[in-house]
């Protein structure tokens, strides 16, 4: 005879996993499953509930609702359940708060979109693989929850933005499913202005090219520039009778002038060699030749 599914509903006092007596359960605090008392398993076994066991957890004071699976039925205190710390924060629960736990039936997840709560999440080389590995310890996802994943001894908080297929509970189960993941930009992330960066790079390239093509013209020394300029003094303190002129008085250096002229004639891409030309000897005129012949005679 076919039996309709029955609903399990109980109220419990809740604490974080770290408050559970006995050995430390750090792995349990990083997942999305709760620990319930053995009496809950006894009641569930008498009901025709669907498997896997999923539960809707509600905080009546804050009207917050989330969903979770069950890890074990080993709570040492009757009427007490233990929740992951991130789930306590999502539901605005304090230690010893009262919650209502109700059995739930959720659709199998097909798609989920996440929003990292910090740009530090971008430092992970392969965030998709890290998230997929962390979700193995979760049983379900609820829109609006901020789940916590641990990677390299650092906690990353990620908000569940959207799940599919749509359901009135806004939740899905991720047990034995083919889940497609998508990411929204992290909170505080600013998209770089690629157009401005490209324009700045193009301007810098043009300026560098112009600097290479522009010849470095050496300015000729001024005629008034003098080397070793100064005045002479006598050892006896008397003023010199004649004015002492500098040993070297510089004027326009013909070599500098020639170098400046060559730089001015420089053309990019053209290689030229310029050498000083000697003046051709003057041709003897007919009169000078006659005069020289007469003198020899």
Would you mind describing this structure in some detail?
This protein is an alpha/beta fold and 297 residues long. It is built from seven helices and twelve strands. The protein has helices at residues 26-29, 38-45, 85-90, 127-134, 194-213, 254-264, 286-296; strands at 9-16, 33-35, 54-59, 64-72, 80-83, 97-104, 111-116, 140-142, 146-151, 154-164, 171-173, 180-183. The strands form three sheets. A six-stranded mixed beta sheet has the order 2-4-3-6-1-5. The longest helix has 20 residues, at 194-213. The chain is elongated and about 130 Å long. The N and C termini lie far apart (159 Å).
Topology:
Layout: E1 9-16, H1 26-29, E2 33-35, H2 38-45, E3 54-59, E4 64-72, E5 80-83, H3 85-90, E6 97-104, E7 111-116, H4 127-134, E8 140-142, E9 146-151, E10 154-164, E11 171-173, E12 180-183, H5 194-213, H6 254-264, H7 286-296
Parallel strand pairs: 1-5, 2-4, 7-12
Antiparallel strand pairs: 1-6, 3-4, 3-6, 7-10, 8-11, 9-10
Task: Give me some keywords for this one.
six-stranded mixed beta sheet; 23% helix; 297 residues; alpha/beta; elongated; 12 strands; four-stranded mixed beta sheet
Number of helices: 7
The side-by-side strand order for the widest beta sheet comes to 2-4-3-6-1-5
Gyration radius, rounded:
46 Å
Number of strands: 12
């Amino acid at each position: 005879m076919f039996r309709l599914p029955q609903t399990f509903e109980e109220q419990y006092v809740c604490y974080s996993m770290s408050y559970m007596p006995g050995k430390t359960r750090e792995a349990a605090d990083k997942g999305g499953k709760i620990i319930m008392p053995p009496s809950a398993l006894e009641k569930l076994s008498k009901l025709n509930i669907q498997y896997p066991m999923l539960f809707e957890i509600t905080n009546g004071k804050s009207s917050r609702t989330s969903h979770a699976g069950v890890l074990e039925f080993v709570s040492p205190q009757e009427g007490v359940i233990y929740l992951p710390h991130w789930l306590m924060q999502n539901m605005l629960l304090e230690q010893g708060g009262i919650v209502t736990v109700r059995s739930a039936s959720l659709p199998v997840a097909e798609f989920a979109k996440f929003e990292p709560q910090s740009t530090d999440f971008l430092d992970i080389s392969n965030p998709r693989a890290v998230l997929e590995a962390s979700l193995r310890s979760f049983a379900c996802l609820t829109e609006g929850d901020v789940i916590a994943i641990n990677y390299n001894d650092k906690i990353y908080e990620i908000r569940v933005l959207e799940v599919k297929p749509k359901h009135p509970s806004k939740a899905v189960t991720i047990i034995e499913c083919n889940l497609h993941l998508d990411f929204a930009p992290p909170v505080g992330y600013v998209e770089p202005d690629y157009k401005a960066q490209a324009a700045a790079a193009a301007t810098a390239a043009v300026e560098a090219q112009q600097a290479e093509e522009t010849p470095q013209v050496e300015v000729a020394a001024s005629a008034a520039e003098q080397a070793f300029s100064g005045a002479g003094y006598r050892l006896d303190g008397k003023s010199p009778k004649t004015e002492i002129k500098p040993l070297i008085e510089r004027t326009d250096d013909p070599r500098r002038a020639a170098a400046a002229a060559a730089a001015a004639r420089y053309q990019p891409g053209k290689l030229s060699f310029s050498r000083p030309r000697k003046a051709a000897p003057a041709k003897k005129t007919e009169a000078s030749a006659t005069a020289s012949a007469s003198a020899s005679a």
